[in-house]
From TrEMBL:
Residues 11-204 form the DSBA-like thioredoxin domain. This is 2-hydroxychromene-2-carboxylate isomerase. It comes from Kibdelosporangium persicum. Keywords: Isomerase. Transmembrane segments: none annotated. Belongs to the GST superfamily. NadH family. It comes from the Bacteria.
């Protein structure tokens, strides 16, 4: 919260966004090991209450509504991308949604160590069942499978503490220069869109490889392998 960029690579996602859903699907399908190491951060449009709190904190939300033409394009595009992945889905109808309901509930689940499981439940409900994930009753229904009190999840948007945490999440969106989702960050590097997931994962891999400490000169003569482990010449490593 002090303005220092996260050392861990981040994945900004929205439970509203079909492109976030597709990126989440690809990430777990192809890069499940990386998924466990990411800093997962929610991106959501604030309601009037959160907007007022955000403005009071000196922030603003970087989002503008889509045009009708873009909305129609997204309908076609998501159907095409989902078909490429062998996914069937039901397009949900959002009526006066309050996006704090599922996203602040996600923060509650993350606090309990069940953040990714919450996203799984929300994705299933929204994109496969066509349910309204902004309905507190729907969110509460995931409590049993997550092992979390459903009322705690459903009431997150009414909890002043969770509202404050939500505002901090919105401020981080602004600080990281996030303008849409899915959005990935690796320190100062930024990747926007489901089609940038591969580039992001490759960048993370390169950074890991470059962070491995080099083997000192002459180390192999001392029995130190190139990967940094020690081989003392005995089959069992003892002796």
């Amino acid at each position: 919260m002090n303005g220092v960029r996260s050392v861990r690579p981040r994945f900004y996602f929205s439970l509203r966004s079909p492109y976030s859903w597709l990126a989440w699907h690809d990430l777990l399908r192809d890069h499940w090991d990386l998924a466990e190491q990411l800093d997962w951060r929610p991106f959501f449009e604030p309601d009037s209450h959160s907007s007022a709190l955000l403005a009071a904190a000196g922030g603003r939300f970087p989002y503008t509504p889509m045009s009708k033409a873009k909305s129609l394009y997204v309908l076609q595009d998501v159907k095409r991308l989902a078909a490429e992945r062998g996914l069937s889905f039901r397009w949900p109808v959002d009526r006066n949604p309050i996006w704090e309901v599922p996203h602040l509930a996600y923060l509650v689940a993350a606090r309990h160590g069940r953040g990714q499981d919450f996203i799984t439940a929300a994705a299933r409900a929204r994109w496969h069942e066509g349910r309204n994930v902004c309905d507190p009753a729907v969110v509460a229904s995931w409590g049993d499978e997550l092992g979390i009190d459903g009322s705690e999840l459903a009431g997150a948007a009414d909890d002043p503490l969770m509202r404050a945490q939500g505002v901090q999440a919105l401020l981080e969106i602004q600080r990281d220069g996030v303008f849409g989702v899915p959005f990935f960050t690796l320190r100062h590097q930024k990747f926007w869109g489901v089609d940038r997931l591969v580039a992001f994962t490759e960048a993370v891999k390169r950074r890991r490889e470059s962070s491995v400490a080099p083997v000192p000169a002459g180390a192999e003569r001392l029995g130190l392998r190139k990967d940094g482990s020690v081989d003392d010449g005995h089959a069992g490593g003892c002796g």
